[in-house]
Design brief:
This protein has helices at about 70-80, 95-105, 125-140, 150-165; strands at about 1-10, 15-25, 35-40, 45-50, 60-65, 85-90, 110. It is α/β, with parallel strands linked by helices and about 170 residues long. It has a single domain, classed as 2-Layer Sandwich (Nucleotidyltransferase, domain 5), CATH 3.30.420. The radius of gyration is 18 Å and the shape is globular. GO terms for molecular function: DNA binding; transposase activity. Pfam families: DEDD_Tnp_IS110 (PF01548).
């Protein structure tokens, strides 16, 4: 049931927000009360924030669309920090996840997951439904993180790639 619809404006972008409150039958334990699912594409990211509802046993989901520029990703990070989320799960095609992950990793509990491990029910697939499904799986702790090398290793990878490509470094 739809209980609210409003527009949130920011200098970078306008986000349409749909909030819904759901009653959940307690079949599985909720591991993370405040979970986020993000489906990332080249242009933007669909973000589903799943928070406890006003009544016991309910939760609200809010789906927003955020751009993929650095300023928009930083604004999203501030928004998620304000929501006090306990887990952020993201999936992406190609390597579009990298700016989101790298800008979130220091201040948010972020997890990159393989899309194959988070398959939704067969049928119509949309980025919005994927984000909602990721948030639900994250809330119940049902996803396993894909390995993302720590920053010192990532820097080493870039250095080795540059050396193999014949890049000559000056100085130092």
């Amino acid at each position: 049931m739809l209980d609210s619809r409003f527009i949130l404006s920011s200098p970078q972008q306008t986000h349409q927000i749909l909030g819904t409150e759901h009653e959940e039958e307690q079949v599985m334990d909720v591991v993370h009360d405040r979970a986020v699912g993000i489906d990332i594409s080249k242009r933007d990211a669909k973000v589903c924030v799943r928070l406890p509802g006003q009544r016991a046993g309910t939760f609200t989901t809010t789906v927003t669309t955020w751009g993929s520029t650095t300023n928009q990703i930083l604004a999203l990070r501030e928004f998620l920090e304000a929501q006090k989320v306990s887990v952020v799960v993201m999936e992406s095609t190609s390597d579009y996840w990298k700016p989101f992950y790298y800008l979130f990793e220091e201040s948010l509990p972020v997890m990159l997951v393989n899309a194959k491990n988070a398959r939704n029910i067969p049928g119509r697939k949309t980025d919005v439904s994927d984000a909602q499904w990721l948030a639900q799986l994250a809330a119940h702790g049902l996803l396993r993180a894909t390995f993302v090398p720590p920053e010192p290793i990532r820097v080493l990878y870039v250095s080795v790639d540059d050396d193999e490509a014949g890049v000559v470094r000056r100085g130092g």
